Amino acid sequence: MVHSANAKGFKRVLLKISGEALMGNEPFGISMPVINSLAKELVEVHKAGVQMGLVVGGGNIFRGVAGATQGMDRAAADQMGMLATVINGLALQEALKNNGADACVLSAIEVGKMVEPFIRARALSHLEKGRVVIFVAGTGNPFFTTDTAAALRALEIKADVLMKATSVDGVYDKDPKKFSDAVKFDRLTYDQVLEKNLKVMDAAAIALARDAKLPILVFSMKEPDNIAKAISGEPIGTLVTGGNADECSA
Questions:
Q1: Is residue 238 scored above 80 in pLDDT?
Q2: Interatomic CA distance for residues 91 and 85, integer angstroms
Q3: Which has the higher per-residue pLDDT, 71 or 187?
C-alpha cells in the first residue's frame, strides 16, 4: 500500500486529467461516453468521503505549445490553451452534476459569469462542503503547463497526493507505445525523474512536489475502477516520492 493519510487511503486528492483523455477515440473535442464514464467513477469515489480537486488540461481542443511551433506567439497560444481548459472544466462539471455530485469550476483567469475565480480560501471551503472542485486555466500565466498548475493546486489545497491519470499504466524508461522492451518503474524518487528526464510531469511540477514532499502517483485511467483503487491505496501505477534511489529502482 502506498503512503497515505491513514490506513484506509487518501482523504484529499488532486487528480490531473489531460484534455486528450476526454477525447476517447474521437479525433478532436470531447467524447460524451468517456466523460460520463469518468464522472461516474469520480462520483463513486467522492461518495466514499474523499475530497477531490481536479485539474483538467485542454489538449483535446488546443495546445499552446503546438500553436507556438506553427508560428503563433507563445503567450497568445498559451492563453488560447487556458480557454480550452475552461471548456473542458464546464463539460466535466455538468457530467459530475448529472451523475449526482455537486461540482464547481474555479478559474485562474477571469471568465465573466461562467465560472468562479480561483481563490484559495474559496476552494478549501468548497472542498469542506463536499463539492468536487475543478481547477481550470492552468496557473493563469503563459509558459506554465497544467502539470505545474496541478502541483501548485495540490499544495494549495493540502492534498495528500497528486495523481496523474494517463493512457499508460505508469512511468516507463521509454515510450511503451513505441518500444516493446520498455521497462515500467513501480517507484521512483523525484531526483530520478529529473535526472533520467522521465516524462512524468514537467520539471517545475516535480521540483514543487519534491520541495513539499508531495507524493505523485501516475496510473492508467483506461482500466475500470483504477481511480478508486489508487485512492484506496492499492499498489498500481508508479509512485514518485523522496527516499533512496536504491529503494526505488525499476
A1: yes
A2: 10
A3: 187
- How much is the pLDDT for 8? 52
In this structure, how many other beta carbons lie within 10 angstroms of the beta carbon of residue 146? 28
pTM (predicted TM-score)? 0.90
**Residues 103 and 54: beta-carbon distance below 8 Å:** no
User: To 10 degrees, what angle do helices 146-156 and 203-212 make?
Assistant: 20
CA distances from 213 to 50, 112, 190, 216, 245 (A): 21, 36, 9, 9, 15
Is residue 2's pLDDT more than 50? no
For residue 207, how many C-alpha atoms fall within 13 Å in the half-sphere facing its CB? Answer: 6
Lowest mean pLDDT among 88-92, 133-137, 230-234: 230-234
Query: Residues with Cβ < 8 Å from 70, sequence gap 6 or more?
Result: none
What is d(CA 193, CA 202) in angstroms, rounded to the nearest whole number?
Answer: 10
Q: Domains of the chain (ranges plus CATH)? A: 12-247 (3.40.1160.10)
Q: Write the single-letter amino acid at 46.
A: H
